[in-house]
Amino acid sequence: MRVALLSGGSGGAKLARGLLEVVGPDRLTVVANTGDDAELHGVHVSPDPDLVTYRLADTIDERGYGIRGDTWEVMDALEAAGRPVWFRLGDRDLAMCLIRTELLAAGERLTDAHAAVVRAAGVSARVLPMSDAPVRTHVTARGRTLPFQEFMVAERAPGPVDRVEYTGIDQARPTPEALLAIAAADVVVIGPSNPVVSIGPILALPGMREALARARAPVVAVSPFVGGRVLKGPTALFCEHAGIPLEAAGLPDAYPGLLDGVVADEPLSGLPARMADTLMSSLERQRRVATVTLDFAASLTAARPDSA
Amino acid sequence: MRVALLSGGSGGAKLARGLLEVVGPDRLTVVANTGDDAELHGVHVSPDPDLVTYRLADTIDERGYGIRGDTWEVMDALEAAGRPVWFRLGDRDLAMCLIRTELLAAGERLTDAHAAVVRAAGVSARVLPMSDAPVRTHVTARGRTLPFQEFMVAERAPGPVDRVEYTGIDQARPTPEALLAIAAADVVVIGPSNPVVSIGPILALPGMREALARARAPVVAVSPFVGGRVLKGPTALFCEHAGIPLEAAGLPDAYPGLLDGVVADEPLSGLPARMADTLMSSLERQRRVATVTLDFAASLTAARPDSA
Predict the structure, then answer these.
(1) Which of A206, A290, B104, B244 is the most exposed place for a label (fewest CB within 10 A)?
(2) Do A81 and B71 touch (CB under 8 A)?
(3) Is residue A167 classed as helix, strand or coil in its secondary structure?
(4) Chain A residue numbers touching B101 (CB-CB < 8 A)
(5) How far is residue B252 CA from its own chain's centroid?
(6) Separation CA B143–CA A273 (nearest Å)
(7) Radius of gyration over every alpha carbon of chain A, rounded to an integer in angstroms
(8) A 75-134 residues inside an 8 A Cβ radius of B
(9) What CATH superfamily is the domain B3-307?
(10) Where does residue B119 rank: exposed (0-12), middle (13-18), buried (19+ CB within 10 A)?
(11) Could you give phi then psi for residue B180, rounded to 5 degrees?
């Protein structure tokens, strides 16, 4: 089965790793959120595409971001020079950003620049930025509007959130590669990532909802809610702002009109659903959630009137 | 005495260090060649301004370039990723380039971006890029035309040199800060740097020769030739191309109409000259050459008809 996965950086990245295990690199395309991208320390940082890439390369840090065993020589030098280093990039992580930055400066598209990072990481699956145009998520809270990374990392996400804006979204479009992957997929998976700030920007791209509606494949969401909670703190903050309850039952409303089914660890009504343990704390668990998701999608396809 | 020093990265940088010792940071301004600048690894590299800065900060590497005790994590990561790393930047050196690159990307002038590097290095003297506009020295040799760093570092300077071009020079101008430093100086020193590729671009800036001619201070060149030789191999290559003999006697022709005097370790006719040991292999020697140069300049000023 050819899989197109819409993903943020954490839960979605883990599911990507599980899918890689099940379908192999040739059949996996990840369309990753770039709303968290930022220009920091003079380089173009793409947190979500990079985390997916490092997860697929099995080089991800124990903390779930950055590269395992990385060093901090450059950040230490910047700090010693009195520069703001609230966003700390390891040296190898920075090297990947330099590759991307150099190619962007040479006029290449973000898609091609990130493809070089993916190659550099030794990953054969495709990890596509959702758009080549800049989209920057901004968060308004407590009277201040900040770029996403600054809100999350420098300010440590002081809620409640009053407003989330995807700056630049009106001028942005999904990349041809992303649209092709969705059109050609046997299943489109919406990963267990933050529905507001990770999946939200992808779906808000002009033309993306239409592309998903046109896709011949079923669209299946894997719930980011595990045991009635979210695994990462800020997701709750943004769901609260968006009025999304922290349970799988909220997903059809979070993704209105888009879903053919949901994989979750709790029952759900109104949409086809598959119950499964969705905790992905190990590669084995990631593989298992991927298998359940693909099996569920296959059953949805088989049940379609036109599938005979 | 207020000193304005025109400088490349090696001999000129050493003289800058000696001058710093003698006149202190408040009276020293270095105008550094940016014809060697390059965009590499996604960052803006300014070899000559940086080497002067590191020399003034006493952090320069034993090899005479880069920062002492630097590490190579990022370059190693780029190399492991299969990227070209013929130009190797240490991690701390890279951090300085990131500071400059970030500020340039934010729309600041190269002058202000490099000033941040100078501050970061803890240097109080001014190290000014010669121009805020891009000037890129290109070298033609053996039928190929290459940017300077690529010719020197990647190709290891395969002579003979057929042509040297300062691309962008016609659109470039000296910075207001550089012009002011020259106008306000009590002595303008042309450092013992490569006359063709280090001092050449500075003098070729439209308006620079006029500014030097207008300066009330004497213009004194310190010879880059020591014991009838050049200390750095490529200088010979470029002098040969430009028809400049490797001796102090060639300097008046190399800098036609510009000089009021020459400091050299060999006798010279036709221009006021001061003989001195110009080898600057230690801080003490750098200080001594600086002292001789300033003393010589003072004698030239005193001898002027209008100085009484």
Answers:
(1) A206
(2) no
(3) strand
(4) 42-43
(5) 19
(6) 69
(7) 18
(8) 77-78, 81-83, 91-92, 94-102, 105, 119-121
(9) CofD-like domains (3.40.50.10680)
(10) middle
(11) -65, -45
CA distance B300 to B221: 13
The vertex-B275 CA angle with B281 and B31, nearest 5°, equals 60
- Rounded to whole angstroms, the Cα distance separating B129 from A169 reads 39
Contact (CB<8Å) B81/A96: yes
User: How far apart are the C-alpha atoms of B192 and B212, rounded to whole Å?
Assistant: 17
Average pLDDT value for residue range A26-54: 97
Please state which architecture CATH assigns to domain A3-35+124-305. 3-Layer(aba) Sandwich (3.40)
How much is the average pLDDT of A134-146? 97
Q: Domains of chain B: which residue ranges?
A: 3-307
Contact call for residues B177 and B215 (beta carbons, < 8 A) = no
**What tokens were used for A160?**
């409640």
pLDDT in the model for residue B192: 96
Q: Label residue A229 exposed, middle or buried (CB < 10 Å: 0-12, 13-18, 19+).
A: exposed
Residue from A307, A112, A280 nearest A218 by CA: A307
- Spell out which residues of chain B touch residue A94, defining contact as CB-CB under 8 Å: 74
Backbone angles phi, psi at B92, to 5 degrees: -70, -35
Residues within 8 A of B (CB atoms), A 2-21 only:
none
What six digits make up the tokens of B100?
């400059």
